[in-house]
Give the backbone structure.
Amino acid sequence: MGRTIIAGNWKMNLTPSQGAALAEELLPKLENAGCEIVLCVPYVDLAAVAQAIKGSKIRLGAQNLHFKASGAYTGEISAAMLKELGVEYVIIGHSERRQYFAESDETVNLKTLFALENGLIPIVCVGESLAQREGGQTDAFVAGQVRAALKGVSAEAAKGVVLAYEPIWAIGTGKVASNEQADETIGVIRQTLAALYGQEAAQSVTIQYGGSMNAQNAEGLMAMPQIDGGLIGGAALKAEDFAVIVRAASR
């Protein structure tokens, strides 16, 4: 399996000073972690959090980027801007971006390619709606999203991609896919990767679960054979809860 990564997605929360304070609170709690830790913070928090985590094992992530190097794209952020701030990871295609900001499979693919070209590690999100889950369409839909996101990505480059399975019906709702449901769908994602790139590449890709993983359910989810980590929303804003999840992933 891929390396274990726990990434906190702070979404649109915390000012720069609040973000730095949370990062500083996390440092002693995470110093013995046995997995990779990433904080994906709002753009305006990046510099303050980068300073707070300097010299630690915590990595810095952004929540989005544009697929062009520069230009007349008011309000957008480029890969070069992120890298100069010390960003190593970037979330691409989160369901909230798809739902509220018209992200499509095409833009997710363009951003994934651009992140890889510029040395950033993309955390590419895929996941189905409740209607698709209840209609028995989960496997086909999620596999289609994976294929679309990785169009034009080589087998070697694919090894540097992180995928996050986020059932849309379980994000911020408190609903969680059962351990078995999450593991089964992540298994489908890995099979899709194997069909695209071969078994070795498929096994080396980190696939996270991202549907309301929290301090209470993290241990059960992390014990499943296909799950390589988590993309954590609400629980990432609470230092002790996030630390509990990291400890579960470190076992």
